Amino acid sequence: MPARKYTEEQRLQFMALIDRGGSVRAAALAVGAHPDAGYRWMKAAGLSTPRSTQRRYTDAHKTEFLRRLGQVGNVSAVARELGVNRVTCYVWAHKAGIFTADYSDAKRQEFLRLRREGLPRRAAARELGVEAHQALDWERESACSRRAGSTPTAGWSSSGLRRSWRT
To answer: Does residue 137 belong to any structural domain of this protein?
Structure first.
């Protein structure tokens, strides 16, 4: 199959977008070209693609993230919603003294309380807004840990990391 031909106008529009500081991928897609074509045009023009500079976030970004985190409770979901790097969001949460493991443990404890009260697993999971597989994992861990003196431990096997129970 022959290579797709792009017009000279597309190439010039691409170069104009690059001159304004756009990324190669974004500029190529904006003019209706494949990103690979954009990289070829850059190479043909003798231009190199500079490393991307680290994005700077304002205090308003951080404030909005922390506000939404308080509502949603899930760092990854809020990061995706706001278009901010997930790792950056975890750093902001930790610096603000928010540790999502504590939040998750609180949900786990609430789930187990609802189950003790007789609520079906799916209903308890739905009420707390957790995935069904997460609820099942919590229930299995709870059942295993009820054995006297059992504590979860991680160990290595030939197939990789595995969870075992030490009594």
So the answer is: yes
**Is 47 in the same domain as 22?**
yes
Residue 142 lies in a domain: yes
CATH of the domain at 45: 1.10.10
**Helix, strand or coil for residue 163?**
strand
Q: Find all residues with CB under 8 Å of 26, minimum gap 6, and list them.
A: 17
Q: State how many domains the chain has.
A: 3
User: Which residue is listed with tokens 């022959």?
Assistant: 2
Which helix (H) or strand (E) covers residue 109, if one does?
Answer: helix 100-116
Can you tell me the distance from the alpha carbon of 121 to that of 130, in angstroms, rounded to the nearest whole number? 11
Cα 111 to chain center, whole Å? 24
Mind listing the pLDDT tens digit for each residue in 19-76?
A: 877 788 888 999 999 999 999 999 898 887 765 666 788 899 899 999 988 888 788 8
Picking from 125, 66, 115, 109, the residue whose alpha carbon sits closest to that of residue 91 is 66
Q: Which domain holds residue 123?
A: 102-149
pLDDT in tens, 115-158: 899 999 999 988 888 888 888 888 887 776 665 454 444 444 44
The span from the CA of 77 to the CA of 79, in Å, is 5
Task: Classify residue 31: in a domain, yes or no.
Answer: yes
